[in-house]
Write a structure and sequence with these properties.
- The structure holds 2 protein chains of 2 kinds.
- By secondary structure, chain A is an alpha+beta fold.
- Among the domains of chain A are: 100 residues, Nucleic acid-binding proteins (OB fold (Dihydrolipoamide Acetyltransferase, E2P), Beta Barrel), CATH 2.40.50; 131 residues, GAD-like domain (Gyrase A, domain 2, 2-Layer Sandwich), CATH 3.30.1360; 83 residues, no CATH class.
- Helices cover 30% and strands 20% of the residues of chain A.
- Chain A is built from 20 helices and 24 strands.
- In chain A, helix 7 packs across helix 11.
- The longest helix of chain A has 23 residues.
- The two termini of chain B are 33 Å apart.
- By secondary structure, chain B is α/β, with parallel strands linked by helices.
- The model of chain B has no long low-confidence stretch (mean pLDDT 91).
- An 11-stranded mixed beta sheet of chain B has the order 1-3-2-4-6-5-10-11-9-7-8, sandwiched between helices.
- The chains are: A alpha+beta, B alpha/beta.
- Chains A and B meet through helix 18 and helix 19 of A and helix 6, helix 7, helix 8 and helix 9 of B.
Chain lengths: 704, 393
């Protein structure tokens, strides 16, 4: 069709005088009476095309009149240098333009639901950002949204990152093996997506939450080094940056230890970030889980800024300050942080009324102690209760200098102290802008606890195949079990967990001890992992691995706000796809075929009956719950409505629908500037609100 | 005893303006018309504890004209229902000279008729509804109940006029300064054949006598058959319920109103708060609206097409007549709030057509428990009041 087509974005001054053939979409138009300029966009970029009666054939100019945004066209023409002063610095090709000789329109385009163009046609003008477009609208027209150059860039980069992974792992002797999507429920702990089986009635496949067991079986099979860019599925509750399906780089290797994984992953991570022109320093620092909690309050610490915790419990051993004394009597802890040189921005008022009274209680602590350092003195509402020795010890321990602010959290619970101080650490870093832009701080977190305390007994922190740091433990001794560390590791960058893994158990005896510790019965074990454990009988090599959440990795490298910006067709925050309308209803026939609609069976699958219940649907869309008594009356009313619908259905009507007896016309606000209503300005709108927090109406949390 | 009908009785209600056209006039309001700093709950838990932050435009205007606002009255939930015709009791028991009362399907006129008062629903779009808490935006008006046409005229004069805060107002609102005298011999009044079907035989007899009296006074009568008369009710019910379901969306217990405790999450908060905010009648109505809105939008659209045709039909009628007259028999109204929607529509079948088409309508006490409802051309509210003045003379 197009013998000599070249990409728009490749053109430059060197092509002056060249005859070129281009194809793409009309990104923008500028009509100067007789002369029409368009931005022609293809995957590579944008070039300006000129239709002028002086240089283009008349019928081409006339034909060009019908062009609108996003028409798909092809042109041929010749490249010229733009006239002095008309260059467009927004475009890579801004020094040249193409004078059209021919034009063919492949297809026209309807009015767009939102603008696609991201490049101004005139130097110095800026483009409106797409931020005001609702994300659901973008997702509904995802194919248009993906036309935008910034989105195209995201996916080109994603491809390059994935290619970099494959190239690197191939160099390292890893082979890519696919594992099944229709499989059996695995022990990751999240909810499974289930797929009903037609051939095995009332049996279900589960979509994999990860290829965990398969990749370990591949080690048993002797592949030694495996990887996969695997799609995984988890039916979890909504969280802002989560998708029901996601892509994970899954790696497993035999005859290796932790050092092999660190070495491999550090090199791979450095290479991936390089695609985004980000240089990561090696080696990545390592931090034990205990240290991470003790100094940052988080098992995925953000190390782009300081504010590490300082232990202060011992300073107050003899204190007469009541609150501290009580905390210490109950075996509690006191920890704090020094905020260097910020006393100007953290006034008494901010520290006491915002942090101590509002923010800290919302993080879960009862209170906060603060001190500002002025000269050699500590200033605070409680400093009068401290002895000279204590004040000196604080200044020394916290390295306090004039202009610093010290805050402390004291609580009977170590968990409260660290978690609240951890949240404060992040809050303060953002508020005080302590995070340098463009900084990336990777860290390995190691030596996690193997088990966590649960309501009844204990559970695995990761999964039950993670190797413990030592194997001489008593599976009945809860305290000993809780003190066990695992050979697991997480890769954390800028406070975000990009992935994690572990060295696995490769001894049947150890594995059985773990199961005993977890209080699993023989039957449980056989049911859940029988097929997997059986493989332990046939020579299992020492092995371990790791998985990286690739959507997060790519989003971080590209600096996008959400992982949905780097997934071509994501679900929205309600796990719904506005483009395809999935999940959608299915026909009764389909349900019958897979045995989920068996009239003879009383045990109906929940959800099906509900969907058919009109009143429940209306109750949901109207967000009005109904009591059982009311339900009957309301159902009767809806029946009346249906009867009315039937009555009018027979009536033929040609008149246009009338929505108001007044001639309704659009009316604009007369004042030119948007202004807050005085009632809002005076804060009176909050007087009638059932719940208020600060300057906001308070509502129940969106998530459970 | 004012306590049983007033929610809020003003303590400082006497107006300072002594020279305005409404000086000395006491006006009571239904509690869905906002007066700044007064509880304004519109009879609904959905507005539990709601204190109005601004005066309604009509309140502002009435006060400017010298009127004193006596207080606001108990009412049925969001105005849906007749609730003992309390808005008329305020006048008949002497607490006020006039009441402003919602007229969604005829409530103000019916209340007036029950207490042998005059009930008036103005043309749609001449009286601002800013500050009025309604349920069916395209049909409801603020009605006026009073003892004499003169009081209604004065209140109407003061209260009407363009208001840019109400987006449904007529661009040209007539002034009511020069109300023409009625010349019976030049005035044709239409009757509708189908309306007789709504009357008991005894009521029909009284209605016929009332019509004869009009003829005796010199008016020309013309009987008109409207085959589609039943459709007024259907259209009102379909369109009204959809608008209620839609406009009732604002009652979410976030910015005002009732909030249920212990919600698990956002949606749960809405489900529970709204469950507790609405009574069974309002819920039934809202669910009917939701049904058309979400499950059968075609029927809603069809109803709007029928509404266009009904409006055209009535407009055409006024080519040959000057007024329409319909009987308004006084029926006992169940006091109970649990009146089913259907019963309510039965009671309002003859008043709701004026809400569907937006025409001005006035109920005037006639003989033996019957009121006559007159309907005039759109925006000819003045003529309607002139007719009333002529007839009560």
């Amino acid at each position: 069709m197009q013998d000599h087509r070249i990409y728009c974005g490749q053109l430059g001054l060197a092509d002056r005088g060249q005859e070129v053939c281009l194809a793409g979409w009309v990104d923008a138009l500028r009509d100067h009476g007789e002369v029409l300029f368009i931005h022609l966009r293809d995957r590579s970029g944008i070039v300006q095309v000129v239709f002028s009666p002086d240089s283009s054939p008349l019928e081409v100019c006339q034909n060009a009149r019908q062009l609108r945004n996003e028409f798909c066209i092809t042109i041929s023409g010749h490249v010229i240098k733009r006239a002095e002063g008309t260059e467009n610095p927004h475009l890579e090709t801004g020094e040249i333009e193409v004078v059209a000789d021919t034009l063919a329109i492949y297809s026209d385009a309807d009015t767009l639901p939102f603008p696609i163009s991201e490049k101004a046609m005139i130097a110095g003008t800026s483009m409106k950002k797409l931020e005001s477009v609702s994300e659901d609208l973008r997702l509904q027209y995802r194919y248009l949204d993906l036309r935008r150059p910034s989105m195209q860039r995201n996916f080109i980069k994603r491809h390059q990152i994935f290619k970099c992974i494959r190239d690197f792992l191939d160099e390292q002797g890893f082979i890519e093996i696919e594992t099944p999507i229709l499989t059996k429920s695995t022990p990751e702990g999240a909810r499974d997506y289930l797929v009903p089986s037609r051939l095995h009635e009332r049996r279900f496949y589960a979509l994999p939450q990860s290829p965990q067991l398969f990749k370990q079986l591949l080690m048993v099979s002797g592949f030694e080094r495996y990887f996969q860019l695997a799609r995984c599925f988890r039916d979890e509750d909504l969280r802002p940056n989560r998708q029901p399906e996601f892509t994970q780089l899954d790696i497993e290797a035999s005859f290796i230890d932790e050092e092999f994984i660190y070495e491999l992953l550090e090199e791979l991570t450095v290479r991936m970030f390089r695609v985004g022109h980000i240089e990561l320093p090696r080696p990545f620092p390592r931090m034990t889980h205990t240290e991470a909690i003790d100094t940052t309050g988080s098992d995925r610490p953000d190390l782009r800024f300081g504010l590490r915790f300082i232990e202060a419990t011992d300073i107050f051993g003899q204190t007469s300050y009541g609150i501290f004394k009580q905390v210490l009597e109950r075996g509690g802890r006191i920890k704090g942080i020094t905020i260097k040189g910020q006393s100007d921005r953290l006034s008494k008022n901010v520290l006491q009324n915002e942090y101590a009274k509002e923010i800290v209680p919302s993080f879960g602590a009862k209170g906060m102690t603060w001190m500002r350092v002025a000269g050699e003195e500590l200033e605070s509402n409680i400093v009068q209760f401290f002895s000279e020795t204590e004040k000196q010890a604080i200044i020394e321990r916290f390295g306090a200098q004039s202009g610093d602010v010290i805050i402390m959290i004291a609580d009977p619970s170590y968990e409260v102290v660290t978690s609240v101080l951890g949240l404060l650490r992040i809050h303060l870093a953002h508020r005080l802008e302590l995070i340098a832009p463009g900084l990336y701080c990777p860290v390995w977190i190691t030596d996690f606890p193997l088990f966590e305390a649960a309501d009844e007994g204990i559970t695995s922190s990761h999964h039950p195949f993670t190797a413990p740091d030592h194997i001489n433990f008593d599976p009945a001794d809860r305290d000993q079990l809780l003190s066990l560390r695992s050979r697991a590791y997480d890769l954390v960058v800028n406070g975000e967990e990009l992935g994690g893994g572990s060295i696995r158990i490769n001894s049947k005896q150890v594995q059985n001890k773990i199961f005993q510790a977890l209080n699993l019965t023989e039957t449980d074990i056989k049911d859940k992992f029988g097929f997997f454990l059986h493989a332990f009988d046939y020579g299992i090599p020492p092995h371990g691995g790791l998985a990286l959440g690739m959507d997060r990795v790519v989003a971080m490298i590209l600096g996008t706000d959400s992982i949905r910006e780097v997934i071509a067709f994501p679900k929205n925050r309600s796990a719904f796809c506005p483009l395809t309308q999935a999940p959608s209803g299915v026909s009764r026939d389909q349900l019958a075929e897979i045995g989920l609609l068996d009239p003879g069976n009383d045990k109906r699958i929940s959800g099906i009956q509900k969907e058919g219940d009109l009143i429940d649907t209306l109750s949901w869309v109207s967000r009005i719950a109904l009591g059982d008594d009311e339900k009957k009356i309301v159902a009767q009313a809806v029946k009346t409505a249906q009867k009315m619908a039937k009555n009018v259905s027979a009536i033929q009507m040609d008149d246009d629908p009338l929505f108001s007896v007044m001639q309704v016309s659009n009316r604009m606000r007369r004042v030119s500037e948007a202004k807050r209503h005085p009632v809002a300005q005076r804060g009176e709108i909050f007087k009638n609100a059932p719940a208020v927090k600060g300057d906001f109406f308070k509502v129940a949390s969106i998530l459970e | 005893m004012t306590a049983n009908i007033f929610i809020h009785a003003a303590t400082d209600s006497i107006s300072d303006i002594t020279k305005g056209p409404l000086s000395g006039t006491m006006i009571a309001l239904q509690s869905n018309i906002s007066v700044r700093n007064w509880p304004t709950e519109a009879g609904s838990r959905a507005l539990e504890g709601f204190i109005a932050l601004e005066d309604a435009t009509v309140v502002e205007r009435l006060r400017k004209a010298g009127a004193s606002i006596a207080g606001n009255l108990t009412m049925s939930e969001l105005g849906l229902g007749l609730s003992g015709n309390i808005s008329a009791r305020a006048v008949s028991e002497g607490y006020a000279d006039a009441t402003l009362s919602a007229d969604m399907m005829g409530e103000a006129r019916i209340a007036a008729a029950a207490h042998r008062l005059i009930g008036f629903k103005p043309s749609y779009g001449i009286m601002s509804r800013f500050g009025f808490i309604g349920l069916i935006p395209s049909m409801e008006c603020i009605g006026i109940i009073a003892k004499s046409p003169e009081v209604i005229t004065d209140v109407l004069k003061a209260a009407t006029g363009f208001d840019e805060r109400d987006f449904s107002m007529s661009p040209d609102i007539p002034s009511f300064d020069s109300s023409d005298e009625i010349e019976p011999s030049a005035t044709t009044i239409g009757t509708i054949t189908q309306a007789h079907a709504f009357l008991a035989p005894a009521e029909e007899e009284i209605f016929k006598e009332a019509l004869e009296a009009l003829e005796d006074a010199g008016f020309m009568l013309k009987e008109i058959s409207l085959e589609d008369f039943d459709l007024f009710r259907t259209v009102h019910h379909i369109v009204g319920s959809v608008e209620a379901s839609s406009s009732g969306g604002k009652y979410d217990g976030v910015r005002f109103g009732h909030r249920a405790g212990a919600a698990k999450n956002w949606n749960d908060m809405y489900l529970k708060s709204r469950a507790e905010s609405f009574g069974t009648v309002v819920k039934s109505f809202l669910f009917q609206g939701a049904y058309f809105q979400f499950e059968d939008y075609g029927t809603f659209e069809k109803a709007c097409r029928i509404r266009a045709k009904l409006l055209k039909t009535v407009q055409t009628l006024f080519d040959t007549i000057d007024f329409l007259v319909l009987p308004q028999a006084v029926r006992s109204v169940p006091e109970s709030e649990t009146t089913a929607i259907d019963t309510l529509y039965d009671l309002c079948a003859l008043t709701l057509p004026a809400n569907v088409t937006g025409h001005p309508a006035l109920c005037l006490p006639s003989k033996d428990g019957l009121s006559l409802q007159f309907i005039a051309r759109h925006l000819r509210d003045g003529e309607l009041l002139s007719l009333a003045r002529y007839l009560v003379r």
